[in-house]
């Protein structure tokens, strides 16, 4: 392999990793928005309260954003990204399941009237 081919393969791999990291960031933002939109009363069924999960998910999104969009290189970046993805996955999985379906915060029933 010559140097040009090696550089092309490296650029393709870097592009693929960037797309994967963007998908992880979108997943973090989705989890954070889902957490912030859920009423406080639903968190009584979860293991932790809304402030805890909001902080964890905000921290995960910040770590992912720092890794993606700044020239700052954090130690153990792949493991930090994996941990951040796990935090969002855990919130959207078991914690959302414990809280049950989303309840209306206004106390109204279903229907348009």
From TrEMBL:
InterPro entries the UniProt entry points to: DUF2516
Coiled-coil segments: none
Keyword Membrane carried by entry: yes
PROSITE patterns from the UniProt entry: PROKAR_LIPOPROTEIN
Transmembrane segments: 15-36, 52-70, 76-93
Keywords annotated in UniProt: Membrane, Transmembrane, Transmembrane helix
Protein name: DUF2516 family protein
């Amino acid at each position: 392999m010559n140097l040009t081919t090696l550089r092309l393969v490296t650029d393709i791999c870097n592009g693929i990793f960037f797309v994967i990291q963007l998908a992880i960031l979108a997943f973090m933002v989705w989890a954070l928005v889902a957490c912030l939109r859920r009423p406080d009363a639903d968190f009584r069924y979860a293991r932790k309260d809304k402030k805890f999960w909001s902080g964890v998910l905000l921290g995960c999104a910040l770590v992912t954003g720092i890794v993606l969009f700044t020239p700052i290189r954090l130690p153990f970046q792949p493991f930090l990204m994996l941990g951040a993805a796990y935090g969002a996955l855990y919130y959207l999985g078991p914690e959302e399941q414990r809280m049950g379906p989303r309840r209306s915060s206004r106390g109204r029933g279903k229907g348009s009237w």
